[in-house]
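Quiz preparation item.
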């Protein structure tokens, strides 16, 4: 494949034709933040966090879905780029549940990490909240659409890697939801409980089931008695 010469942040870079600007920058040691991107699995340009300036383009470009071109001049860290990335992330967070203290992915959440990286210290926007409830039907996974940022990583890994196709985007607009067909519960879908979706989810929209689910069940049914098990003590000798 032909080599393409471009400039990224003043650095001369050579990349194979067809390479994305994001990957070309990575090869040159230039980091561009991403959220929805998963190399060769999910390259859909959904989150717009990886925006860059391309000389001659009228708008900022999503670097994960923009191929390199001969003579291209790219800037990855201008005030306009930083402002747009931060604003996009603020909008993504505007309907995200503020449950970090009780969230199983807290401190291991890409949304949380990116917010810190982009300097978001307050939530300026409060949007409409998701109408969908958590799905606790699976024996191994919790699907919580309220925390879904619609990055589609789970859909891509289920389809392209595992070839199961248990989940897909449903509905439209703000009501878009990643779910089994006909919005069936995950527990009755073709899911094989491999957990790959939870592994690639950047938030806790799909996560491994733990005793949090039992606590939710107890909260929903005041007559239900739930025994919450604790891990056995580990003796260190
Ligand atoms: Fe490029 Fe999401 S990482 S649009």
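Solution:
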């Amino acid at each position: 494949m032909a080599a393409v010469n471009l400039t990224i942040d003043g650095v001369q870079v050579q990349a194979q034709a067809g390479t994305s600007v994001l990957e070309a920058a990575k090869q040159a040691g230039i980091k561009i933040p991403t959220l929805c991107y998963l190399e060769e699995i999910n390259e859909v340009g959904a989150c717009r966090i990886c925006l860059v300036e391309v000389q001659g383009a009228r708008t900022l470009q999503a670097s994960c879905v923009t191929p390199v071109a001969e003579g291209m001049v790219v800037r990855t860290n201008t005030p306009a780029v930083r402002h747009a990335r931060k604003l996009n992330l603020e909008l993504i967070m505007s309907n995200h549940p503020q449950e970090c203290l009780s969230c199983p992915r807290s401190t291991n959440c890409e949304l949380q990490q990116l917010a810190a990286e982009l300097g978001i210290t307050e939530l300026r926007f409060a949007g409409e909240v998701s109408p969908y409830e958590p799905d606790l039907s699976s024996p191994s996974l919790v699907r919580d659409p309220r925390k879904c940022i619609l990055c589609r990583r789970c859909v891509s890994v289920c389809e392209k890697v595992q070839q199961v196709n248990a989940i897909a985007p449903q509905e439209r607009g703000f009501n878009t939801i990643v779910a089994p067909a006909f919005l069936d519960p995950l527990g009755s879908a073709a899911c094989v409980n491999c957990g790959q979706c939870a592994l690639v989810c950047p938030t806790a929209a799909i996560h491994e089931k733990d005793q949090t689910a039992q606590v939710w069940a107890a909260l929903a049914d005041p007559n239900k008695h739930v025994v919450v098990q604790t891990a056995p003590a580990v003796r260190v000798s």
